[in-house]
């Protein structure tokens, strides 16, 4: 359960993160594909300019506390209340991941490596996959159910990518799965907000989902669509929108890769300063070892 404002806020968080990961991972991969290594977070250079990381660290606890406060507000809809508690806990888990990244990158917190961060992130995405659709909507709201089923699939893609990167951080395909998954989640959560929580973009014949106010005393939420035929038509339309989003995200990925491949000036600088330092040191070791091999 959510609202148009909540979904739009999620879009503003997820979409830029996914685009930045695509740009930085493409830039580092194009510099030297054989020495590519994924990072949990691609910092700016200098590090203090990583405004996106600082903004998320400040925004996520505020959002989590807001949902936690809504959970304690009086309402006769315990299903909705439990959903807000789930979302609050999920945002807090992602905030913990960002705090660990901050401590590791800025305060030399060496107890946690990249593999653990990817593992932790994969578990959080897996929890999101399990929670998606659990108590969020009534089974009679078929179009809404389909929207959250597809959202759960995107969370599963991000989870599998993170878990694979925790084992093999050099897997560029897994990095693409994570980055594209975040971009896709951003566009799809915006589409879900427009389709489910607005009158202007709702499916014809179906009503938008609305959470009752604390002073409203109603029973169970009414079905989203009155007729089964309308609900099935809504599901088909949602599937078509999902395919359109998938094509758009794929085209965006190809365009970004092509632009960065032919124009070095558009690449994200160093992408990640510690990572590029490792790459340069390995390149120097390789160049020094070549004359020794020739002498032998």
UniProtKB/TrEMBL annotation:
Species this protein is from: Stephania japonica
Record-given protein name: Uncharacterized protein
Membrane topology: Multi-pass membrane protein
Places the protein is found: Membrane
Lineage: superkingdom: Eukaryota
Record carries keyword Coiled coil: no
Keyword list, A-Z: Membrane, Transmembrane, Transmembrane helix
Family affiliation: Belongs to the TMEM45 family.
Stretch forming the signal peptide: none
Keyword Transmembrane helix annotated: yes
Assigned GO CC terms: membrane
Transmembrane annotation, as ranges: 6-30, 51-72, 84-103, 115-133, 145-165, 172-190, 240-260
